[in-house]
Amino acid sequence: MNMKIVEEIKKYRPCNAQEQRDKSVILDFLEKNGDAFLRSNLLAHMTASSWIVNPERTKTLMVYHNLYDSWSWTGGHADGETDLLSVALREAREETGIAHVRPLSPEIFSLEVLTVDGHEKRGEYVPSHLHMNVTYLLEAEESDTLHVCREENSGVAWFTLEEALKASSEPWFVERIYKKLNNKL
To answer: For residue 53, what are the contacts with CB-CB under 8 A and spacing of at least 6?
Structure first.
């Protein structure tokens, strides 16, 4: 187990009741599951997401996620990697095509336990499970070239912070996650 990420999560200061409860759940999960960073844990596994903003903090970069049929943040599975900031950066680059994305801080920006409904992935059924998610705040220039990652999304676009809330068709994410991220800016 990577003690560095556990220590980072322990020192993270939750901004609301959702984060306080989710922090406890994530720490308990990490303590009890040696395979926490692997998708082979079919009940739950660690993931990393990012809220990508422009330097003025007036826009966020989102992808149209095919699986969820909605505009959403970037992120993905740890797949054995315990440096979740590296996972967030990798996923941001893969999903958007941006080359020059950087963390505004190496510290955790947000924590959440996310539900994932059962679905098909590459012809195989993936049962419903939880993502124990760590979010980082990243920055990129709007002028950077964007590319769609056809395997996962069908669009990449900048939205004002308010437009991002309207673009997402996932009410729980809008109310519990995206509004929180915008407010924390």
So the answer is: 59, 60, 61, 104, 137, 138, 139, 140, 185
Q: How far is residue 154's CA from residue 30's CA, in Å, rounded to a whole number? A: 33
Instruction: State how far the Cα of 69 lies from the Cα of 28, in Å rounded to an integer.
Output: 31
Closest of 103, 124, 129 to residue 114, by C-alpha: 129
133 DSSP β-pair partners? 47, 112
Helix (H) or strand (E) holding 5: helix 3-11
Confidence category of residue 139, pLDDT binned at 50, 70, 90: very high
**Single-letter amino acid code for the residue at 181:** L
Average pLDDT taken over every residue of the chain: 96
